[in-house]
Amino acid sequence: MDVFEKLKILTDAAKYDVACTSSGVDKKASAGGIGNAAACGICHSFSADGRCISLLKVLMTNVCAYDCKYCVNRRSHDTPRAAFSPRELAELTINFYRRNYIEGLFLSSGVLKNPDYTCEQMIEALRILREDYRFSGYIHAKAIPGADSTLLTRLGMLADRLSVNIELPSQNSLRLLAPDKTKQAIFSPMGHIQKSIQENARDIVKYRHAPKFAPAGQSTQMIIGATPDTDYQILNLAEGLYKKYRLKRVFFSAYTPVAEDSLLPAPDTKPQLWREHRLYQADWLLRYYDFSAGELLDQQHQNFNPYLDPKCTWALNNLHFFPVDVNRAAYRDLLRVPGIGVLSAKRIIAARRTCSLRFEGLKNLGVVLKRARYFITCGGKAADGFKISENTMLHSLLSEKTLEQYRCDFSQQQLSLFDQTPPINPHPGRVYEDACASGPNLLL
User: Fold this and answer.
1) Cis-peptide, bond into residue 338, ω within 30° of zero
2) Are 415 and 266 found together in one domain?
3) E strands along 33-78, which residues?
4) Contact indicator for 151, 123 with CB cutoff of 8 Å
5) Which domain, by its residues, includes 361?
6) Terminal CA-to-CA distance of the chain, rounded, Å?
7) What pLDDT is recorded for position 397?
8) CA atoms of 353 and 425, how far apart (whole Å)
């Protein structure tokens, strides 16, 4: 099998891994070297200056000793197999880079023979790139669960970012669909990577030219929809990973049926893209808006609303928190207003130091008044001539596409946003979610 046949097989096998995003590291080639890494670089997208940034996303091999039911590369699945030698992969990467096809490498692998052997093959490929070709471009490598910690350290010294995929959100799901994997085998390398990153950061302070271990940090991925795990379980796990392991990102991938198995959803099941989207929105709230998982979901309401984003749903279920006066509210309170983002909240804080803000000026600060006007006042006053009604609020908070779907789903019933009395805190009732409960279940 020639190298291009291998490339076709192994790039196709790598497409299900979504943990591929901005590099998060700035690095320039030394004299005589090639390749640079920019923190703004994004896989298969565009940077701020309009350049297309791309990575060669490929597996070292799709031969795998494991038999994870959800994986297209599991050992019991009938699929064409291939494997790169370290030299083949390194030369392919460099040739693509020189032709300006790519600007970096995303390398993962099936488990060939055992985790240690697979990790050694990946290390050798990256060593050739870094030392023989003096390649300084961005490299994201997937750590192999179960590999020796010494090998993970060597891998981290060659790669800019490491990731260990959790894949399934619970131990029960792992036991059922990935019997060769254990919770300990996944979290142990995560802990080692985090410890090495912290130790390396201290060394860099002491020794300016000390080698950097995974300078862009680590990430992980979870598959959504292959098991009965709820959004509540998934989001709480993500929050715990951010706190304990200081992950850069938790990625969510809607399960795509690739093979038949009695333990998996039917082959004609559509990927739960709406659910994936809601989890990414909630993840953003955790990382940048100072929300906690317990505020967005609870034991009684374990899945996100398919019609409203998590921030709007929280606002509707916590109307006692509003209205917020933009001239006096704290930064954290401004972030909880639908229609006000991180940048617009900072602009509000800066602008009100010199003048009293009015509704006419908020739009210039980036505030989406179509949403925010229901939840804010300026100097204690609501917008002139503005009256709140259920229909106007609903139309403003829903996108046009979602609104059309909403009309179709509820055309036969009368819906009220405020037809229930919210229970006492700490877990206010999901008023809007409860009202939508009789509609189609788009989550599970």
Assistant:
1) no
2) no
3) 45-46, 52-53, 56-59
4) yes
5) 310-435
6) 42
7) 72
8) 34
Considering only CA atoms, give the Rg of the chain. 25
> What is the spatial distance between Cα 10 and Cα 27, in angstroms, rounded to a whole number?
28
Whether 382 is in a domain gets the answer: yes
Q: What is the CATH number of the domain that holds 54?
A: 3.20.20.70
pLDDT in tens, 134-186: 998 889 999 998 999 999 999 999 999 999 989 888 888 888 888 888 888 89
pLDDT, mean over the chain: 82
Q: Write the single-letter amino acid at 207.
A: Y
Helix (H, G, I), strand (E, B) or coil at 104: strand
pLDDT in tens, 190-215: 999 999 998 887 765 555 667 789 99
Which tokens hold the place of 55?
A: 């990575």
Rounded Cα–Cα distance for residues 108 and 105 (Å): 10
- SS3 of 124, please? helix
Closest among 146, 144, 166 to 156, alpha carbons compared: 144
Q: Which residues, including other chains, have CB under 8 Å from residue 253's CB and lie 6 or more apart?
A: 16, 17, 18, 221, 222, 223, 224, 276
Which amino acid does the sequence have at 7? L
Write the pLDDT tens digit of every residue in 35-85.
555 443 434 544 445 545 578 889 999 999 999 988 889 899 888 999 999
Give CA–CA dist 332/46, Å, rounded: 31
